[in-house]
Amino acid sequence: MKTSKLSIRLLWYITPLVILPLLFLGGFTLTNVTSSTQKQAEIIVSRFVEQQQQKMFHYIDSFHSTTKLLSASPVLSDFLADDLRDNGNYTRRLGALMDVFASYSEAYPDIISVNLVSSDGQSDAYYSSNLNTAPISYPFFSQVLQSNLRQQQFMVQKQDGTTSLYFIQRIYSADYYLKRPQQLGFIVVHVEPSILNTSILEAPYNNTLNLLLTSNGKILFSSDYDKRGQYISEYELQQIHDLANLSKLSTIELSSIDKVERMSYAIQMSGGYYYVSTIPKALLYQSGKAISLITALIVIISVITLPMLIFIVVRNLLLNPIELLGAASHRVGDGDLSVYLPAHNNDEVGILFNDFNHMVNQIRHYQDELEEYKHHLEDKVESRTKALETMNSQLEVAIAQAEQANQLKSRFLANMSHEIRTPLTAIMGFTEQLLHSNKTSGDALHLSTILRNSKHLLELINNILDLSKIEAEKLAVEKEPLDIVQLVHDIDSIIRPLSQEKRLNCNINFHLPLPRIINSDSTRLKQILINIASNAVKFTEQGLIELDITYNSDLQLIEFAIKDSGIGMSEREVERVFKPFEQADTTTTRRFGGTGLGLCISKNLAQLLGGDVYVTSTHGQGSCFCVQIACNLPADKQQTVPMLTELSQLTPTKDLQLSFAENSFDANILVAEDNPDNQVLIKLLLQTWGLEPDIANNGAEAVEMALVNDYQLIIMDMQMPVMGGLEATQMLRHAAFNGPIIALTANVMKDDVNTYLQAGCDEALAKPIDKDALESVLVSYLNIEKDSQNKWDSLLNSEKFQQINDNYRLKLPGYLTDVTQLYNNGEWEQLRALAHSLKGSAGCFGFSNIHHAAATLEDNLRGRDHNRRDYLALSLIEAIKYTLQQEQSLTKK
């Protein structure tokens, strides 16, 4: 293949773009290798010399301290006393002093001898580790006498080239009445400098020469043993002095040692000594030269090879595919549609090749379709006409389904209207009757009717809300331990009275063995079973209702079969029974009522619980609804599952460990509550259980009391003045209080409860107070037995509770005045706090209308939408007024 013009131009541009940066990079590297090597060496050598200096300094300073400590020895002072020889204790004191010298020599192995020298140079006491005799004189003693320094050290080199250290400490008398202390002598410590010898032999590089020089140029220590004792010239000594002042690595030549040019670093030490570290310059820059040669070689090779490699790669990756694509395009332009580019790499060029092949295939395909359309145009028109007819038929079916859905919606709305209006009519009618009637004989019956219809209306609304959550896939179910016997007992306690009202037999059959405990959602499972069982009672006029419980061990499913002998259903009705808003037929709605939501919700809930609901029915003979639920038993086969195998196990038993015992439990409990009425009520309730609590009026008091006293349990209101319960709980947990904290509040929404638990609370209980829930929580944390189940009833009927209730009634006019004044003044935040207090206290004392009105007002004031706050505030005022009117009417009667 001949070289294209584009290839030549590409090579012409690539070559200078590659060569020039490489040349610049190589020149820059070569020029900086030497300087970087020198800087690196200077850093290494300077750090090394400074480390050696510090090591020597600490070594010398330690022996100065040792000599000074020895001179202050009480034994030495006792030895130098004036009456030493007069009283005959010289031998004893000399022996004691020798023991002191020996102890210092053992403690410091480098000490060769310790000598007590008098002021005239005579040895009074001498100790040597090698048993030598005291020297007659020291070569430096004349300098010691001429100096006024208390501490001095000298380095003395021996004839064999080794150097010893001598530390001298003057000794003065302790007579403080003399204007000038009397000099008694000197302590001379002779040391073999092992650390100095070691430091001299250490080196940052190979062939490094370390020297320790005196002020006159004599080499005392050297890493080259042969150099010890030699002298350097005065000129070289001056160079070293100047080099020590510069504190940098510099080039000098020590002709007195050798003729090698060296890079040297020097520092001046105390006493006029110099520490010098030298490195042959050629050795230091040897690595730099090698790097320079390697760099130059790499640059030359790169300049030659890189342009060629880049040209080859670019040609193979880009130029050749472009030439191939151009040739193929030219053939397509000439009408040759058989062109096909070979498969290429999965990159942009490969995508371009694939797109080109796709384009050619599309052109070929469109040409074929055009030919086909020319030959089969009539067939296409006929088939298109048939397709339009089919679409019209489907459209007619869709229109019919839409009309049916519209009718279904209208029927559902009519049914909903009837179902909602029926209980509302009863509620409104009996409420008006109670308001305008002065008779009290039928009040209980009327109230019972209102309550029953209210529950029915609540159940209807709950069903609609549950269905909405299911369709939105936002209904969550739990997996908690569930006792099968207790579950069936709860269902039986609800269904059996309903069946007895219609004189139906109600049978429950346990098919053993059954697992005692499964993991499921107790609330939702009860909702399913109660809904289906109540339907069975509703649609059965005579006969029986049966509930069979069976366990499928292979699938780990528990099955509840609910059978009845009611009206039954046809096959067509069975197909529609689980659809929302539908019942078997319209006559069923007119005869029995209902919304058609129960079975649809039950089936969806069963599926969420890992099972399903099935039905078999015969018209006129009855139905059987089978509810299957996943048991969610442990997957570990080694963990045994408790099973029900005998009839004696089918009686539900209440756990006595979750109730209070007869004897009172000695436990310190703190109650943090700002409302005085709630304080008295909670205290009275706890006293009934044998507990005497302490009361805190706000969170700040609760924190202070909990940190001072030892409480086993804290009951904490969440909204209080000064400091709320949330902040108080967090502060207690940060202060290492690890006891249980029970949140007692009227705000028990899921998000609120999660907030309390995250802050450090162990449980969250709702206001109004649920006695059983509070008892269960207290017992679970205090671990005491129940004293009497009837104490709660006796508490409500006791004179003390009635007195508390009467006191609260007397405070209602004051609450009414406060609410009215805050509303008129527009003080919404204070009104919200008062509504929160009323919500909890009114509910505790049975004033449900005030409780609900205060709760609704508080929720509105806590949110951002305040459009209804005036209405809700007036509703709370009216609720308090209505309660006061009722109390006055009862008082008159």
UniProtKB/TrEMBL annotation:
Chain coiled-coil ranges: 363-408
CDD domains the UniProt entry points to: HAMP, HisKA, HPT, REC_hyHK_CKI1_RcsC-like
Highest taxon listed in the record's lineage: Bacteria
EC number: 2.7.13.3
Single annotated GO MF: phosphorelay sensor kinase activity
Residue span, Histidine kinase domain: 415-633
Domain annotation HPt: ranges: 797-893
InterPro entries: CheY-like_superfamily, HAMP_dom, HATPase_C_sf, HATPase_dom, His_kinase_dom, HisK_dim/P_dom, HisK_dim/P_sf, HPT_dom_sf
The HAMP domain, residue ranges: 316-368
Phosphohistidine modifications at: H836
Primary site of residence: membrane
Modified residues (4-aspartylphosphate): D717
PANTHER family: OSMOSENSING HISTIDINE PROTEIN KINASE SLN1 (PTHR43047:SF72), TWO-COMPONENT HISTIDINE PROTEIN KINASE (PTHR43047)
Name this polypeptide is given: histidine kinase
